[in-house]
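Researcher: Here's the sequence for the chain we discussed earlier.
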Amino acid sequence: MPTVCFLDNDAILKLVAANLFCPAISSLGLTQADLRVLPTAKFYFRQSRRLKKVYPESLLQRTLEVVNACAALTPTVDEELQRLQVVEGIDPGEEVLIVATKTEPSFYLVTGDKCCLTALATAGELQDIRGRLKGRVICVEQLILRVIETQGFELVLTKVLPARDYDTALKSIFGSGEKATRENVLLSLEAYIQDLRQVTEGLLADL
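Model: Thanks. This is the structure I predict for it:
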């Protein structure tokens, strides 16, 4: 059974910035055809003034190319979307992605939004949605760890170093730059993932 992978904008940008988008997708045994993005993603990466102030045009263009190569979701407006909309901490993009998982028997949800995951884990009225997402959510740090395990630390270090200043977590994990060691990076990644597991109460996948 094919596995569909839903990606939020934040995760896409982080992976492209770290030069790890394709290796990360491959590490999950997925191809471009398995990926789904928000219908607004291409406009976000093309038009966001906030992004243009932070990221170089070349990086945003690479991100846009990735998004354009993925299938865009068709938003569904239903009772579940309405329930998600009243929960503080879940932004509109995450709401659309979460609702879209209803129609897929096998899926992953890749997100860089810790606030969304925390809100999902703690909102009592979302118990049924948590049940569907349990073990299906993947954070960016899990993917970086996965690529290190499958393709080697040196490859990841070479790819991440030029982009580590664009992301707080990457800067912390690879803060030693060229002197970063596999052991220290793995410890940092595993600590972050473990903390997120405790906060999200079973949402994260076991990769």
